[in-house]
Amino acid sequence: MKVALVHELLTMKGGAEKVLRVLADMFPEAPIYTLLYDEKKLGDWFSKERVRTSALQYRWLPAPFRYNHHLCLKKFPATVETWDFSEFDLVISASSAFAHGIITNGKPRHLCYIHSPARYLWDRTHDVLERAGRGVLGKLRRKYLERTFHKLRIWDSEAADRPDTLIAASQEVQRRIELYWRRQSDVIYPPIDDFWLQSPVEQSPVGNYYLVVSTLVPYKRIDVAIEACTQLKLPLKIAGTGPDERRLKSLAGPTVELLGYVTDEELKALYSGATATIFPGEEDFGLVPVESMACGTPVIALRKGGALETIVEGVTGTFFDELTAASLMNVLKDFSKASFDTAACRAQAEKFSHQKFEEQIRRAVENLTNA
Hints:
Blueprint: E1 3-7, E2 9-10, H1 15-26, E3 32-33, E4 36-37, H2 39-42, E5 51-52, H3 63-66, H4 76-82, E6 90-95, E7 109-114, H5 125-132, H6 138-159, E8 165-168, H7 171-181, E9 186-187, E10 210-213, H8 222-232, E11 236-239, H9 245-251, E12 256-260, H10 264-273, E13 277-279, H11 287-294, E14 299-302, H12 307-310, E15 317-320, H13 325-332, H14 342-349, H15 354-369
Parallel strand pairs: 1-3, 1-6, 2-4, 3-5, 6-7, 7-8, 8-9, 10-11, 11-12, 13-14, 14-15
């Protein structure tokens, strides 16, 4: 069976790209179609020989603009529709915004793994527009985005009928697929890397710190964890990089440390030594809580989104109810890692293994191709 893979953007390493990496290993001969590809950031995961990029990859632009998808947002729908998959038997797309809109017309069959219907087109539209409306040129930016988003929403809802099978990354995503697209889907949770489950977690002494692991962007709401730990004078380590780093540093008190990029080995030690991992944002799924539990460390998360599907309250972590520092502080004041069992955390993480994900994807492929 000749297979092709489709992924919107290969410009950064994140949870969606980790899922694609698993799919690429499952189908090693499959080419990968993408709108933009940054070889410097993703070349060690997906070789340039395997990647088929689009005409939107403006190689003549300076590097900061070459992979900026905001510059060609309106062109993405028409671009994914130009790809010809007639030589293939099966296309597996992984979509967060546009990949579901490829045209196959039933030959080849199209299985689409949905990380989420585009958040900025649907449930986060007003937040995005509010931020865009700030500043000197805010009114112009907002007007432009309002028109652009309106056109993209129409295309998005129409294109949602094209895949033969939809797979949702979580029950939360499944709910949004039904709400916005009026389509049914099955749930297959993303896997964590085998690295986190390869060997038993060492019983390292608990460090006197809390941990946040995240790309540093505003919607992750790391500022809530910073404010809570600063007010309570609790040590907080933040692992990750991103465009919001300067703002977060300005908010950080003396007990907060931004570590920047850390290796997986360093991160594993940070997870296992932390009192708890704080997961303050609302995510579609969220690999960080699962990685933390794999290292035997409980999670403190906002009571929303995918965290409700991975964390067992009172067993592998706990929740705070409102996206405020005050709500998080109420949990931190009385939190004790000793109340949670390392083995229970690890057992929960094993439910999201690479092997289980691969078995479920192969079963979905078999059901589709034999239909």
